[in-house]
Amino acid sequence: MREAWWAELLKVRRSRLPWITALAFTVAALVCGMFMFILADPARARALGLLGGKAQLSGASADWPGYLALLSQAVAVGGLGVYGVIAIWLFGREFSDHTATDLLALPTSRTAVVVAKFTVAALWALLLALLLAGLGLLIGALLALPAWSVPAATAGVGRILVAAALAALTTTPLALAASIGRGYLAAVGVLFGIIFTSQVIAALGYGAVFPWSVPGLYAGIAGAGQDPPGPLGLLLVTATAAAGAAATAAWWNRADHNR
Predict the structure, then answer these.
(1) CA distance 34 to 204
(2) 128 near 20, Cβ under 8 Å?
């Protein structure tokens, strides 16, 4: 396992994708901060050209709880796309770069290779969530948002991390799609389909039983009137993650790796 982890970390270190994903989460924090700036004083935002004269903003409050809740919604919805790209890249690149057969010829079990990739994906997701939370605290302090308290900040950061974990857990089937498709293209199509379907099912009111809609519902994307997902939704997310990881490991162990 040590060698497999080291190899995966080396690939990540030499790639530009970590910087791209970090940039995506940085932009998310800045955009959420801009929304808080606008909500704090819409007239000032209109004078600065940040808000159209007829635009209306609602559904969020310009304070610490509102800002941290907005960040958790951003990571729940956007995190599925970013974490999905990470999973697809970690597994699909071996086939796109024609290194899969070389990798499997090494004296390292195929299960160890899969576990190492999922471990790196989990660590990557955690670091991105911490980056978003840290930037959120910094931007909120610069904006001098009201209603600061240590319990509120702790609860808000915890909500961001849990939403990120839920979003990351639902991406294991994308690793299977990248493996079966032997590259990026098929898995990216699956990712787009999942994102679209999750929005439709959540709008129809069945998001609590659709694993890919659960992170957004947990973060409160549906509004204050929508109940958060119950134990069944969280169980489905866990089951989806476990099934995707197990199926990916089984495929890598049993598939005919002829290229």
Answers:
(1) 30
(2) no
Give whole-number Cα distances, 30 to 37, 139, 220, 256, in Å: 10, 8, 20, 46
Report domain extents, the chain: 2-254
Residue 247: half-sphere exposure toward Cβ, Cα within 13 Å: 16
The answer, as to whether pTM is greater than 0.85, is yes
Q: What CA–CA distance (Å, rounded) separates 131 from 150? A: 19
Nearest to 181 by CA among 96, 97, 70: 96
Backbone torsion region of residue 147, taken as left when φ is above 0, otherwise alpha when ψ lies between -120 and 50, otherwise beta: left
> Per residue in 167-181, pLDDT tens?
999 999 999 999 998
For 128-166, give one letter per residue: b (16+ CB within 10 A) or e: bbebbbebbbebbeebebeeeeeeebeebbebbbbbbbb
**Which residue stretches of the chain have pLDDT < 70?**
42-60, 100-106, 222-228, 256-259
Burial (CB count within 10 angstroms: exposed 0-12, middle 13-18, buried 19+), residue 73: buried
Number of CB atoms found within 10 A of residue 241's CB: 20
Cβ neighbour number for residue 57 with a 10 Å cutoff: 12
First to last CA, the chain: 24
The alpha-helical segments, DSSP class H, found in the chain are 2-13, 17-40, 42-47, 64-96, 100-104, 110-143, 150-169, 172-180, 185-204, 214-219, 231-254
| Helix (H) or strand (E) segment spanning residue 224 | none
Structure tokens, 42: 């819409």
